[in-house]
Amino acid sequence: MKLLDKSELIKNHEITALENLEQFCNNIDANNGRYNAFLEINKNSAIDCASNIDSRINNGETVGKLAGLVVGIKSNINVEDFHITAASRTLENYLGSYDATVIQRIKEEDGIIIGMTNMDEFAAGSSTETSYFGHTENPVALGRIPGGSSGGSAVAVAADMCDLAIGSDTGGSIRNPASHCGLIGFKPTYGMVSRQGLMDLAMSFDQIGPFARDPGGAALMLEVIAGYDKTECTSLDFKIPNFTNSVKNCEDSIKGMRVGVVKQFFDVSDDKIVNIIEESIDKMKEMGAEVVELSFDYIDLCLPTYYLINYVEFFSATRKYDGRKYGNRIEDVCGEEVLRRIHMGSYISQKEFSGKYYKKALQARSLIKREVNKLINDVDVMVGPTVPKLPHKIGTTLDPLDMYSYDVLTVIANLAGIPAASTPAGDVRGIPVGLQIQSKPLDDAKIIGMMAALDVMD
């Protein structure tokens, strides 16, 4: 059942909010021990919320856009009275004392928050294997990683433990697990969704976004969480698009669209993935799209630029975890990847190295952003693989560069601040493959419409 249809059934009381919640609670009880998607559940609070929604519907009262829908939250986003650990021993006892802006908006629209999802420690990873609380398993490709760092949120939706989930995307942390788990994962335009209440990984890249099983679910959540926030310095003041209308009126979304295909995105990807993405492009042509060949000569510059900036911003963000106010001192208890980024950020931040590395990375970022904007200037969207390789088996030993290589196609949108999403394109021997769609800043609704048209075609 499509999520927009389910939402209407709940509002019409053909399905009660409590019935919807109970189904997910049963699935969590049966499957979370295996998949380790949720780190914390609060059934009592969720039941109270569902009962209140049902009562208001029975009384003919108006309810919110998310009424009765069950939502999972990544564990680096503040939710009052839940443990906000960022999957780290550093914060294992930290209890949220307030709601992030996105959480306020979800609650205002009657979304039912069921719990906090697993992730790579402090979002520093692409596999959800670095969590202090144990790895998360991919329910669609058993024995393999679900991707990261928002792997728990992806798995919670893919394993039917909630209707929707939100994660954070710094260099692909929503789109990567969406691709590996066969879901919709959306990174909005930078500044479209408030970051207030999100624990920083790299503040100039971080963006909160939704996971859903279909485009309508992503559209509905985007309508709720997008919008200006005067308390957050990167927030954009803009008119929120009617994302759900882009889904409902998607029939001709692709007809006449100029679709950019960048040669280098395919050159760095596995052949099996390329074959599936090319089939999706053929489908777009059949639907009336004009395919435009593009070239991006700076793809080799993107990963080092992203990670150099990431290291410095992450090092700065972690200085507050000194053991005085927020639990344990981070360097004393964190995992290997987090410690690596702290040490690298500390090194690069030193005065004698800042000009050699960090300032050059900032210059490279400006170049990449300028070139990406040129690429998308004459097309409606760019399409290609979300991730260049299939997810590895859990426990496989990878050196850092091999792990970082998962991000080569996703960091581009974060460097440029443009919207990007992953939508299911097919599978290789049962392992999902995602199609990444990128567009101009604030053209997020165009991506939603395109995903919806492809979904209808399937």
Structural summary, described in words:
- Heterotrimer of A, B and C subunits.
- The active site is at 74 (charge relay system), 149 (charge relay system), 173 (acyl-ester intermediate).
- The structure is a single chain.
- The two termini are 14 Å apart.
- The protein has 18 helices and 11 strands.
- The chain has helices at 3-11, 17-35, 43-58, 101-108, 151-158, 175-181, 215-225, 243-248, 263-267, 271-286, 299-317, 330-333, 336-349, 351-354, 358-377, 400-404, 411-416, 444-457; strands at 38-41, 70-74, 112-117, 164-169, 184-187, 207-212, 258-262, 290-294, 381-385, 420-428, 431-439.
- An 11-stranded mixed beta sheet has the order 1-3-2-4-6-5-10-11-9-7-8, with helices on both faces.
- Strand 10 and strand 11 form a beta hairpin.
- The model has no long low-confidence stretch (mean pLDDT 96).
- Helix 2 runs antiparallel to helix 3 and helix 11 (299-317) packs across helix 13 (336-349).
- The chain has a domain at 3-250: Amidase signature (AS) enzymes, CATH 3.90.1300.10.
Q: Which keywords apply here?
A:
42% helix, ATP binding, nucleotide-binding, eleven-stranded mixed sheet, protein biosynthesis, single chain, 11 strands, 458 residues, alpha/beta, Amidase signature (AS) enzymes
